[in-house]
């Protein structure tokens, strides 16, 4: 369907299309808009934090409200911004990169998105229903159990629903990559972004259940009178920290590994060189993921686990620096001897290398147990994880968006605005966070609502706040850029960057069935190989035939809506009996939708061969 | 090992003097100017890891700069396709092995120090203090000495003092950056750490584990005094007569108001272990009011009439009968005269 045709459709049709779509490309758009919305929201919360800390003993916001803001900033950025934006890129790119017509389970793909969105909305409803959660994004017990009001209940239910969506998404990509690679695409011919998506999906599969279990225990403690974490009744409070970080540390790698893949693609394309040490890159990724499960207790060095446990987790943590270092050097070696084009996507990548190296440096520094006794829970740690999560994940998302925007929307983002975004955000980022290393060591613990006068913490905090506004400016320019591009942006060619991988062999944006005929993959950088041999296009691996496509469905939306309503019911049944109506009503909507899905045979539809022949190549 | 650690430290202090002097933060608060055993250990490792990691960063940045200067596409350059390199075994081995060696350089002293700071063998011969973290104040019970106090922890300088720490509510974390790194104060188990101050002084302590609205106001002090002064302090604290009448009439009225208004049900004076609220035995000597405000009568009256305005979410608000400004003034007068000893934070200079 061409752009001209879609412009003729009314708003209602487009809306209904997006509400029911199971097409990975449209779900990518949905993830992008959903995640982008929450990213802006989390950014506003960050600005409120920085304004509050502009001067000592400030009272821009009250202490209790500040705790809600900082909790929601962390929770929103991790679960509702970074994760869905990563899923947006995975959805937009992975099926195209491995030569598939869609993901393995298109219906589940849509369900995953709507669960995330309704989970996120439920969490944010708390602002209007008596106050947001205020126990930190880590929700440590007993603070989260004793927190009054329903804030933490929204945290529990919202994350549980959104987390289910993430788990579904992870399983889906796992199945897609295992079963749907194009003919000839062996594992060791897979582009690195697909590889990192694959590894990330494994991490999601094993890490999220720990969070699910933890949240269930917390839910029962808060809503149904159990005492898993209640020390007074024989429970154990430290176990929450273990459960949370057994999820939480792999989560850090879930957030960064896909972007390592993005940087590998961008560097390789814009250096016009094959990725240096491809095999080493793949195994470094696997090693990082494996070690990622062995290091959770480095978040707990100050808990008092004893010197043996602390030493073991310290060594395991330091070990991760080795594969990460291999990656950095491989990227540098890829650029070495290449022909480097510097545009917006490449700028974000070049900004990432020093920034992430500093984040990795401080990562090794906090891994050193006794040094960490000082860093722990101070602004040093705040600086460290913003260097890796913003410097890695956010820079990576921006790089990916500039790189794949043409493939996602058929238009190229404006370069001038792209560069303006990069420079203001990059400078603002370092202004904001570099000084925080020192603030931490100068005695400023994290999650502090205010600091006292005369402790020489004023100047550092002021610099930090100024930096935050630079970052905000950069983000606003990006939003303007996106709108401008949608309205009058330059139309994208099919292969605007002289790309190397399969997604650049098809139209921008691709037809809804992606590939008319499955391509035959003859090696790593499949498209590049054909270009070098003068053909410039992939050989089809099958004759032109009917294409089997899945039908759209409104059921994923209904299921998620049902869970959202039931979530409200769970939260309010503690005080009000009427909430049982919501609880059972919501469950009925969800289970009814599942029943409808089970009873109705939906075999999808076929695009007939002659229709495909009529379409222009 | 101490030898080369010392050399590294001397070297750094030399090199970084200008920087450290100007930007290392407030004395007796900052971890960058260590004045205790634990803080020394941490500082040495901070310097060591920073140097090793700056070396790595320097290597990366040198290669990065060369790459960008040499291989950036230049205007008017002829179009060509670079050689497609698969990899290089030697290079890849080098950048795998060298980081491993660098990490070992960090790992060995790290583990040595970890076990050193967890050493509890001297606990039975040392001063032991039970530390209790509460929302949002600290309680100190000197084991076997019949001394109870809150907010200001007096210790003898140059001695190991073992802290056996537990929380009465949520998790807190005991952090006095200039003397030692932090350790969590959990509700379910007792954590032990030792601190040792090298110099006399009043050191800022902070709660480092998120514990509620007034988390950022849960400050305390460690007052390190000479051994003689400490002995004097301990003796005076043991000999406190909780019933002693103050001399002037206003304070006497304050004392009886203190009893009438049920203050005693939470606040102890003397060594009785009640600790729903802070122990007030040496209240008049406190370095700060509620950990954060100057100890003045005005501030104290404000605290007594409206504690919420100073520490949001504290446990005193709403749990005592109405107190008028006038009554609060009298109680304040009484409390400010609770100075059972001449050893005060001023002694620690």
UniProtKB/TrEMBL annotation, chain A:
Source superkingdom: Bacteria
Membrane topology (UniProt): Multi-pass membrane protein
Record-linked InterPro entries: Cyt_c_oxase-like_su1_dom, Cyt_c_oxase-like_su1_sf, Cyt_C_Oxase_1, Cyt_c_Oxase_su1_BS, Cyt_c_oxidase_su1_bac
Gene Ontology cellular component annotations, sorted alphabetically: plasma membrane
Keywords from the named record: Cell membrane, Copper, Electron transport, Heme, Iron, Membrane, Metal-binding, Oxidoreductase, Respiratory chain, Translocase, Transmembrane, Transmembrane helix, Transport
SUPFAM superfamilies per UniProt: Cytochrome c oxidase subunit I-like
Domain Cytochrome oxidase subunit I profile residues, every copy: 10-522
Catalytic class of the enzyme: translocase
Pathway: Energy metabolism; oxidative phosphorylation
Location in or out of the cell: Cell membrane
GO biological process terms held by the UniProt record: electron transport coupled proton transport; oxidative phosphorylation; respiratory electron transport chain
Primary site of residence: membrane
Name assigned to this protein: Cytochrome c oxidase subunit 1
Organism: Lentibacillus salicampi
Gene name as annotated: ctaD
From TrEMBL, chain B:
Gene3D superfamilies registered for this protein in UniProt: 1.10.287.90, Cupredoxins - blue copper proteins
UniProt entry tagged with the keyword Iron: yes
Catalytic activity: 4 Fe(II)-[cytochrome c] + O2 + 8 H(+)(in) = 4 Fe(III)-[cytochrome c] + 2 H2O + 4 H(+)(out)
Localization, UniProt: Cell membrane
Membrane topology of the entry: Multi-pass membrane protein
Cytochrome oxidase subunit II copper A binding domain ranges (all copies): 124-236
GO molecular-function term, one example from the UniProt record: heme binding
Alphabetic keyword roster: Cell membrane, Copper, Electron transport, Heme, Iron, Membrane, Metal-binding, Oxidoreductase, Respiratory chain, Signal, Translocase, Transmembrane, Transmembrane helix, Transport
GO annotation terms (biological process): ATP synthesis coupled electron transport
SUPFAM superfamilies hit by this protein: Cupredoxins, Cytochrome c, Cytochrome c oxidase subunit II-like, transmembrane region
Cofactor note: Binds a copper A center.
InterPro entries for the chain: CcO_II (IPR045187), CcO_II-like_C (IPR002429), Copper_CuA (IPR001505), Cupredoxin (IPR008972), CuRO_CcO_Caa3_II (IPR034236), Cyt_c-like_dom (IPR009056), Cyt_c-like_dom_sf (IPR036909), Cyt_c_oxidase_su2 (IPR014222)
Cytochrome oxidase subunit II transmembrane region profile domain ranges (all copies): 23-121
Bilayer-spanning residue ranges: 45-69, 90-111
Family annotation (PROSITE patterns): COX2, COX2_CUA, COX2_TM, CYTC, PROKAR_LIPOPROTEIN
EC number: 7.1.1.9
GO annotations of cellular component type: plasma membrane
UniProt name for this protein: Cytochrome c oxidase subunit 2
Upper taxonomic lineage: Bacteria, Bacillati, Bacillota, Bacilli, Bacillales
């Amino acid at each position: 369907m061409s752009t001209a045709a879609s412009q003729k459709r009314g708003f209602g049709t487009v809306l209904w299309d997006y509400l029911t779509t199971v097409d990975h490309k449209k779900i990518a758009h949905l993830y992008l808009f959903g995640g982008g919305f929450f990213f802006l929201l989390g950014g506003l919360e960050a600005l409120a934090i920085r304004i509050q800390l502009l001067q000592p003993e400030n009272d821009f916001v009250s202490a209790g409200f500040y705790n809600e803001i900082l909790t929601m900033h962390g929770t929103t950025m991790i679960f509702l911004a970074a994760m869905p934006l990563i899923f947006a890129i995975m959805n937009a790119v992975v099926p195209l990169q491995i030569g598939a017509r869609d993901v393995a389970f298109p219906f589940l793909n849509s369900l995953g998105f709507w669960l995330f969105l309704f989970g996120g909305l439920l969490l944010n409803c708390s602002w209007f229903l008596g106050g947001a959660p205020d126990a930190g994004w880590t929700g440590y017990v007993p603070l989260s159990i004793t927190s009054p009001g329903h804030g933490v209940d929204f945290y529990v239910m919202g994350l549980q629903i959104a987390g289910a969506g993430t788990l579904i998404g992870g399983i889906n990509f796992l199945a897609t990559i295992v079963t749907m690679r194009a003919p000839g695409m062996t594992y060791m011919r897979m582009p690195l972004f697909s590889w990192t998506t694959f590894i990330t999906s494994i991490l999601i599969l094993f890490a999220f259940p720990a969070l699910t279990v933890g949240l269930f225990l917390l839910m029962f403690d808060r809503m149904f009178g159990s005492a898993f974490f209640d020390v007074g009744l024989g429970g154990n409070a430290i176990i929450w920290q273990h459960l949370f970080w057994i999820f939480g540390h792999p989560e850090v790698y879930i957030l960064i590994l896909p972007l390592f893949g993005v940087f590998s693609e961008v560097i390789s394309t814009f250096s016009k060189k094959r990725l240096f040490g491809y095999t080493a890159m793949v195994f470094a990724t696997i090693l990082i993921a494996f070690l990622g499960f062995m290091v959770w207790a480095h978040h707990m060095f100050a808990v008092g686990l004893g010197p043996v446990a602390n030493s073991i987790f310290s060594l395991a943590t330091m070990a991760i620096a080795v594969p990460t270092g291999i990656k950095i050097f491989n990227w540098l070696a890829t650029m070495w001897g290449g022909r480097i084009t510097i545009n917006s996507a490449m700028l974000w990548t070049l900004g990432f290398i020093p920034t992430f190296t500093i984040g990795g440096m401080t990562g090794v520094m906090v891994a050193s147990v006794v040094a960490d006794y000082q860093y722990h829970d101070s602004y040093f740690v705040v600086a460290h994880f913003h260097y890796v999560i913003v410097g890695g994940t956010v820079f990576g998302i921006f790089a990916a968006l500039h790189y794949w925007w043409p493939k996602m929307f058929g238009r190229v983002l404006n370069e001038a605005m792209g560069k303006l975004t990069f420079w203001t955000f990059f400078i603002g980022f370092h202004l904001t966070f570099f000084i925080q290393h020192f603030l931490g060591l100068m005695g400023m613990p994290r999650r502090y609502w205010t600091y006292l006068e005369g402790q020489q913490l004023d100047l550092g905090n002021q610099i930090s706040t100024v930096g935050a506004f630079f970052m905000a400016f950069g983000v606003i320019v990006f939003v303007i850029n996106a709108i401008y591009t949608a309205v009058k942006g330059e139309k994208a060619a099919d292969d605007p960057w002289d790309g190397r991988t399969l997604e650049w062999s098809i139209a921008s944006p691709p037809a809804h069935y992606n590939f008319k005929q499955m391509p035959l993959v003859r090696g790593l950088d499949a498209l590049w190989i054909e270009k070098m041999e003068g053909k410039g296009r992939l050989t089809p691996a099958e004759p032109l035939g009917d294409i089997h496509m899945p039908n759209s469905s409104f059921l994923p939306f209904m299921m998620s809506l049902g869970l959202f309503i039931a979530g409200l019911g769970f939260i309010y049944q503690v005080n009000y009996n009427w909430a049982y109506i919501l609880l059972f009503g919501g469950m009925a909507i969800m289970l009814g939708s599942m029943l409808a899905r089970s009873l109705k045979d939906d075999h999808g539809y076929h695009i007939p061969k002659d229709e495909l022949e009529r379409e222009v190549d | 090992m101490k030898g080369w650690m010392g050399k590294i430290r001397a070297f750094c202090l030399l090199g970084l003097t200008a920087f450290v002097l100007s930007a290392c933060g407030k004395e007796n608060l900052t971890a960058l100017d260590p004045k205790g055993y634990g803080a020394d250990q941490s500082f040495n490792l901070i310097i060591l890891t920073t140097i090793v990691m700056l070396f790595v960063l320097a290597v990366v940045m040198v290669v990065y700069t060369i790459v960008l200067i040499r291989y950036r596409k230049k205007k008017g350059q002829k179009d060509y396709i670079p050689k497609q390199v698969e990899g290089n075994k030697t290079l890849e081995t080098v950048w795998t092995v060298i980081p491993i060696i660098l990490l070992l350089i960090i790992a060995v002293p790290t583990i040595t120090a970890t076990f050193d700071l967890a050493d509890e063998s001297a606990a039975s011969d040392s001063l032991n203090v039970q530390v209790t973290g509460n929302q949002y104040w600290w309680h100190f019970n000197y084991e076997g000495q019949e001394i109870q106090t809150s907010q200001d922890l007096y210790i003898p300088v140059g001695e190991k003092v073992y802290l056996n720490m537990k929380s009465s509510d949520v998790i807190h974390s005991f952090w006095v950056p200039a003397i030692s790194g932090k350790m969590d104060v959990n509700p379910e188990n007792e954590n032990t750490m030792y601190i040792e101050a090298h110099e006399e002084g009043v050191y800022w302590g902070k709660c480092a584990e998120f514990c509620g609205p007034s988390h950022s106001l849960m400050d305390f002090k460690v007052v390190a005094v000479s051994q003689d002064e400490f002995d004097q302090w301990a003796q005076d604290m043991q000999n406190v007569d909780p019933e002693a009448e103050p001399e002037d009439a206003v304070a006497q009225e304050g004392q009886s108001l203190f009893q009438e208004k049920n203050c005693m049900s939470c606040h102890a004076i003397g060594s009785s272990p009640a600790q729903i609220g802070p122990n007030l035995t040496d209240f008049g000597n406190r370095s700060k009011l509620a950990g954060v405000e100057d100890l003045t009568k005005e501030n104290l009256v404000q605290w007594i009439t409206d504690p919420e305005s100073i520490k949001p979410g504290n446990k005193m608000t709403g749990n005592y009968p109405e107190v008028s400004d006038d009554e609060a003034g009298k109680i304040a007068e009484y409390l400010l005269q609770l100075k059972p000893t001449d050893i005060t934070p001023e002694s620690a200079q």
